[in-house]
Write a structure and sequence with these properties.
The chain has seven helices and eight strands. It has two domains: 86 residues, Single Sheet (q64v53_bacfr protein fold), CATH 2.20.140; 154 residues, Up-down Bundle (Poly(ADP-ribose) Polymerase, domain 1), CATH 1.20.142. The protein is flat, with a radius of gyration of 19 Å. Helix 2 packs antiparallel against helix 6, helix 3 runs antiparallel to helix 4 and helix 3 packs antiparallel against helix 6. With 271 residues, the chain is α+β, with helices and mostly antiparallel strands. The strands form two sheets. Strands 4-3-2-1-5 form a five-stranded antiparallel sheet. A three-stranded antiparallel sheet has the order 6-7-8.
Amino acid sequence: MSNKTIDKSQSLKSVRLIKVDETQNNNKYWCCWLMPDGKLYAEYGRVRVGGKPNTYVYATQSVAEAEAKLSSLIKSKLKGNYTYAVVEEDTSEPINWSELGEDASSLEKDIRRLKEIEEQIKPYAQIKFDGAKGAFVTPIGKISLTTIEKAHRALSCVEGNLRNSHEKDFFKAAEDYLKIIQVPTGIKLDLKQLLGSTAKIRKQREILVLVSEGVELIASIREEILKILSSRAVNERSMWIHWGELICTSSDTASQSELQIDERARYISWS
């Protein structure tokens, strides 16, 4: 089962985990999808934009056996200091812009602004604008306003511990921030180099403000798209219905139990 043949939108359950630990030079993720044929499809690797994930397929005899296996894998990963990724799920199907006809041209200016934001962000955070999905995405998922709010709080903790004599508090805060917003790290994870000054923290705040502007602009564009669709005979399965859609899931809620894995993947999936 290769990545090219996997339709993640058909998965029955899915999970995304991330691990950031400077002492072990860890900045990696692990994602898994439970497929209708009872197989577990996993993607894993170091967090980086454009990087191709490693893949693995766990073959089981039934969906029930696969569920039990997935639960066991999650428990093992959480014990190994992985945490649930603070990102939203996203769709993986291509978008047909022709469905909007001439109305699509009216959205071009706003789309250009979103691409400009992406270019401003690129040197400082592993976030890109995905025009097909209508979302800013990291290597492990979609950014929402909820994600940004959590990132602001995490960054405040980093700043609060910048002059702390207990370096481990700074490292813990910085690791928590990188679990939300992935910053280009290179081969070695050096938290002081990434976030160890007021100037670097200020730049990350500027990035979060830019991403927030982008997410709000996407929401505005989505409203216009829905108005256009309301006057057209559009197939109810059209992916335009989901363009710019942010599904609010709470990683805090998810982490309360390894069994609280997303059940909605028949309609929406990570890619």
